[in-house]
Structure formats: structure tokens, C-alpha cells
Amino acid sequence: MSASATRAELPGATRPGGPRPLNRNRNSNKAHRREAAFGWAMISLSALTILVFTAAPIVFTFVLAFFSWDIISPPEFVGFKNFAKLAGDTAVVHSFGVTAWLAILVVVLQIVIGLAMAILVQQRVSTWARSIFRTAFFLPLLVSAASISIVFSYLFDDHFGVINYYLGLLNLPQVPWLSSPAGATATIVIVAVWQQLGFVFILFTAALGSLPKDVLEAVSIDGSGPIRTFFAIKLPLISPTIFFASVIGLINAMQIFDQPYVMTKGGPGDATTTTVMLIYRTAFQNIQFGYGSAISVVLFVLLLAITGLQFYISRKWVFYS
Amino acid sequence: MSSVNPPTLSAPADPARARTRSAGTPGPGRGSRLIPHAATRKVWRGVGLALLAVIALGFVMPILWTVSTSLRTPSESFSNPPQWIPLAPVWSNYSAVFEQVPLATFFLNSVIVTGAIVVLQLITSTMSGYAFALVRFRGKGAVFAMVLATMMVPAQTTIIPIFILIRYMGLADNLSSLIVPAIGGAFGTFLMRQYFLQMPGELAEAARVDGASNFQIFSKIYVPIALPPMATLAVLTFSGYWNEFFRPLIFLQSTNNFTLPLGLVSLQGNFGTGSISIVLAGVVTALIPSIAIFLLAQKYFVEGITAGSFR
User: Residue A69 pLDDT more than 80?
Assistant: First the structure.
């Protein structure tokens, strides 16, 4: 990236030994100017949309967090009042706990199961069966989280659900899936993991498939068993993929909304009220845009900090060949 | 970067396995000649396969249940045991969901929104990706840095200002409120730039000598060879926006403007537990386009997912 950037900053033919082999003179300035105009025209639509609808809203969220605004009367500057209120608001603090707990469960399960599946499929299955498994694992990625949550809320229904029916057949106790805090949390985690596992699975399959063959062969000749090879050689080699999956997974899981919104409405009580659900309620149901923005800012900064921390820790365990 | 190349992704482990096997190893799996007991290995292989089969079944089960229950009569829809294979399918739920609910409207809205976003993002991302990769101009480094920085922005944390913006632009409760903010995308720009960076610049130089304009070089030479990554971008954009729930929930108010996921959730609320087979018929209807596109373009999906991971 930096190479092309530097190249771009030296458009004139004045520099001897510049990027262009031909030393053009009068025409070249005109051509460069035309090329630059063309470049700006080509990026304008993308850049403008991203600027207005992604970059500016970040700044705007931080600004709004210092105001009190119900969109009808003019916004009122309140300084740090929103943040002070937020720190003492048990609903907000609780929602961060709920979100973090859900996110950790989802990300850890997703990576462990996804990796296990990728290894199993890669080692023990014929190409024909592999494509069947791959399609099966991919299917959930095609469904919308909202509509599959409808399906799961039926499957996990306490009284009529298929899951409790089969548990009953096996003489296992009926689980109050959606009516108890632990059950509701488990249901949301199951749905989120079920849906995202295919993504992680494909990442790991690709990573395992692109391992250097000569290294693996050398290790195998040296007499290392499959388990030792996995932990000593393969795991370090795919650690960048594990890292990538955990960063992306955590950013997504910390914003979980669709599943609790559809299946539990944040309940029972506030057991599954995630931070984004709270932002939604605060801003769009209670029309407190300033306070909602303040909660968003905290979530944003928290995510930034977690990602930064992940990158920092990654230097100790992620292996780049 | 290698990820954009199709060959790295297909049938990953095969060459390695074939080689170990031809090297005189009796069983499958690498390094297996060093484990003494063939029987133990067979047992483990069976356990692994059984485990995989159970997991795969768990993956398919909810969707199978959805399809089979959507084909039962509403009165039976919640009775256990479920009928996994619909021996006597009842199709009335599908006509019912179109008659009792504006499902056709939801469907059309989803087609309009998703179709517009896919087309627009294809155009803008291909153009900007090309310019960031192969056109020389001052300031593109800074602009690309902004694009990169926004790629990781958690979208849901900036929803409040976007909603306010939408309101002030007069787009609230309008399908264009979903389309306009998605005209350009950071991920698409990044994906296309990665692809064009691998393209040789000499193609452009040769065409320039022949007197082609900048835009002709782009449209006549580079776009035709960039069709595979464009297909990847198209399927990923489709599945992202077709299934989107959060923005429609916040931006749309009237039922007539609902997209499918939002319409289905509101449908579930209205119908309660009385006739879930009708709701499930709606879920299946919404899923059909996704599955069709997946079956047509499976490899582009897989490429899209791996594309972002090896930066």
C-alpha cells in the first residue's frame, strides 16, 4: 500500500528516475492531471458514501453523547452528564456484563468447534463427503438471523418445542430454555454459534489446506504423531487465522441484537438485554438520542480497546511465518 | 493476498493425502504409518465420522424442521413428534401466507433494496478499487486510509446519527433509506483493490500507447478480467443485505415498506403460536433466493469469506 501511495504523490516528470520509464515533457503534465481527475472521479461515489454514512457518524455519535435530545425540541448541551448517569445506571452496566458473557461464550465455542470440524473434515472424509459437510455447515450462513431466531424460538419452546420433546423421550429433564436466565442465554449462544460456525469452519479449512506441505512431510518423517504434529506445528501455523476469527467474531458478537430481540425480547427480566438492545430502546423507543449515543460511545471505545488488546496480546502467541 | 486466487481454496488437503498414501502408507491420514495399531486407527476414524455426522445433522435439523413443518396443517404444526419427512405435504400455508400477509410486498421490497444495493456496490467498488490500485493521483493514500479505518467500525454503534441523517434527508420510512447509505462500501472497495493490485500495469501502458482513454482502459480491459471478484462481491453483498434486520427495524415504520426479515418477525408477533406453519412458510419463501444463489455461486461465497482473512 505504501509503495503505491508514494508513487501517487510524485506525479510530475521532474524527478529523474521516476516511476515512468519514458521521460515525457509537455504532454505528460496534462496527462497526469487528466489521470488524477479520473482517479478522483472513480473513487468519488464510494468515498463520499463512506465519509457521510460511516466516518461522519462516528464523530457525530461522540458529539451527540454530550447533548440531551428528543429530536423534537432543540438539542441541549449537557457536558459529561450522560456519562455520569450511565456509570450509575445498573441497566447499562448489567447490559455490558450480559453482552461480554454472551460474546465470550459465542467466540470461544465457535472457534473450538469450528476448528475441530475443519480438522475432522480434512482428515477423515472423502472429497465427496467433504462437499456435503461443507454445504451443511454453510447453510445457516444463508438464513437471516432474525428469521432463524423465529424458528429456534419454536424449537426451544418450553412446552411444545421439539428440543424438550426429545429430551423427554430420553428421560432427561425438560429445560426452561426461554423462561430462565441461564436457559435464555444458552439458547441465544446456541443460535449464534449455529449460524456463525460455517464462517469459522471455512476460514480454518482454507488455512489448514494452505499449510506448507514440505514442513508437514518433514515432521511426519521425523516421527511425530498426529496429535503432537497438530499442537506443535499446525496450531502455530494457523494461529493468524485463529486470531482473525477471534477479532472479527468478538466485534460481531459484542453487537448481538437480532437473536435476543426476536427470541427473548431481552428477558426473562433483563437477563439477555444486550448493549445494542439497550441502545435501541434508549434511542428509538424512549427517544433519548443523547443518552443512547453515550452508551454507543462506551461500546465503541470498549470494542476498540478490546481489539487493540487482542492485537497487543497476539504478538505473544500469533505466529507469522 | 493469495486468498483471491481460486486455486488455493479448492479441495485443500488432497495433494498431501494422496502423496502420503502413495508413499506406502496403508491407511489414510498423514503420519499414520507411525501409529502401530491399524484397528485403533479405524475406531478413531469411525468416532470422528460419527461425530461429524451428528454435527452436520444438527446443522441441517432446524432448516429441515422448518421446511417439513411449513408443509403441515396449521392445527398440527405444533404437535410432537415432528414429521421430519413430509409424507403428505400441505401446500395451503404457502398460499395462506401470501393471502393473509403482504408477503409479496415484503418480497418485492427486499428484491428492490437488495438488488439496488448489489448493483450500486458493484459499480462503485469496482471503480474505486481500480482507482486505488492502478490510477496515480495525489491524495489517494489518505482517502484509502479512511476507507480502511471504517472497515472495522462496529456498524450498530453509529446507528443513531445515521437515523438522524436519514430523517433530515427526508428518507425515513422509505426503501431508499436502506439503499442510499449503502451506495458504496469499504469492504467492497478493499476487496476489489486487492484484486486489481495483482493485475499487471503493463496492460494499461500498452492500451495508452494505442490511444485509449483512462475510462476505456478501465472498462474495456480491466473490468472484463475482474468478473470473478465482482461475482464474489455480489453474492456477499446480496446475502448481507437480503438478511438484514437491524436497519429496516429502525428506518421503516409502515408495514407496506417492510423487507422480508422485518415482515416475518412482525408476522410471528401477530400470529402467536396458533399457526406457526404459516410463519414457517414465509421463512422458507425468504430462504429460497439465498439458496438458489448459493447453489449457483457456491465457490464465490467461499472465496469471499476467505478473502478478508489473509491480509
Answer: yes
Nearest CB to B137; choose among A40, A54, A194: A40
pTM of the model: 0.82
Alpha carbon of B34: minimum distance to chain A alpha carbons (Å): 7
Contact in structure between B281 and B274 (CB atoms under 8 Å): no
- The CA-atom distances, in angstroms, between B43 and each of A67, A202, B34, B52, B257 are 66, 27, 16, 14, 56
Which residues of chain A neighbour B274 with C-beta distances below 8 Å?
Answer: none
Question: Mean pLDDT of all residues in chain B?
Answer: 80
Read off the pLDDT of residues B144-192 as tens digits, 9 standing for 90 and up.
Answer: 998 888 887 888 889 999 999 999 999 989 999 999 999 998 989 998 9
* CB nearest to A225's CB, from B34, B124, B141: B34
pLDDT in tens, A205-239: 888 888 887 877 777 777 777 777 788 888 888 88
DSSP for A149-179, please give it: HHHHHHHT-TTT-HHHHHHHHTTPPPP-TTT
Partners of A68 in the β-ladder: A76
d(CA B311, CA B307): 8
Residue in chain A nearest B268 by alpha carbon: A150
Cβ distance of B290 and A300 shorter than 8 Å? no
